[in-house]
Amino acid sequence: MPEHRARKHHQDRVAETLREEIGAMIEGELSDPRIAFCYVSEVALNPGGKSARVYVAVDNAVKDIAKAEADTVAALESAKGFIRHGLKEHMGVRHVPELSFIADRSGRFQARIDELLSRGKSSPRPAKGGEPRKPSADTRTHASESASSGQEGPRL
């Protein structure tokens, strides 16, 4: 079992190195105008190490974020060979995994979920009927009976 743990640790280290190196290349070496302000959020390396999925998150300040994501992924896909060659030189490895770039939308979804949750907490929720609940006649009857008999009943 320890050999699996070592293999997993190695894959995690390689994935982290790929994330850092690809991020540095996007910031400095790539000059394609289609690439919007973005960062590499995660690199998922397949168990064999032959291929990797690179998740790229685009900054939310862009007006048309869907178009910016599509353009950025297309530009990175076209620069895939250049990126792999640079990774081979920077990392000093013999084989660099095949890269596939994917737009990471998890940050936008998380922001939307947080917005909806905060909106739900700030507005008071009325009862199902639309008005605050009042005790029914049955509960009032039981409360008055228990009070007259000296027994503790449900408090309303």
Topology of this structure?
Elements: H1 2-28, E1 38-45, E2 51-58, H2 65-78, H3 80-91, E3 98-103, H4 106-122, H5 137-149
Parallel strand pairs: 2-3
Antiparallel strand pairs: 1-2
Describe the structure.
By secondary structure, the protein is α+β, with helices and mostly antiparallel strands. The protein has a domain at 2-106: K homology (KH) domain (GMP Synthetase, Chain A, domain 3), CATH 3.30.300. Helices cover 53% and strands 14% of the residues. It contains five helices and three strands; from the N terminus they run H-E-E-H-H-E-H-H. It has helices at residues 2-28, 65-78, 80-91, 106-122, 137-149, and strands at residues 38-45, 51-58, 98-103. It has a three-stranded mixed sheet, with helices on one face. Strand 1 (38-45) and strand 2 (51-58) form a beta hairpin. Helix 1 (2-28) crosses helix 3 (80-91). The radius of gyration is 29 Å and the shape is flat. The N and C termini lie far apart (60 Å). The mean pLDDT is 81.
How would you classify the helix and strand content by structural class? alpha+beta
Count the DSSP helices: 5
Unreliable residue runs: none
What oligomeric arrangement do these chains adopt?
A: single chain
Number of strands: 3
Within the largest sheet, what's the order of strands? 1-2-3
CATH topology of the domain at 2-106, by name, is GMP Synthetase, Chain A, domain 3
Properties at a glance:
flat, 3 strands, 156 residues, GMP Synthetase, Chain A, domain 3, three-stranded mixed beta sheet, alpha+beta
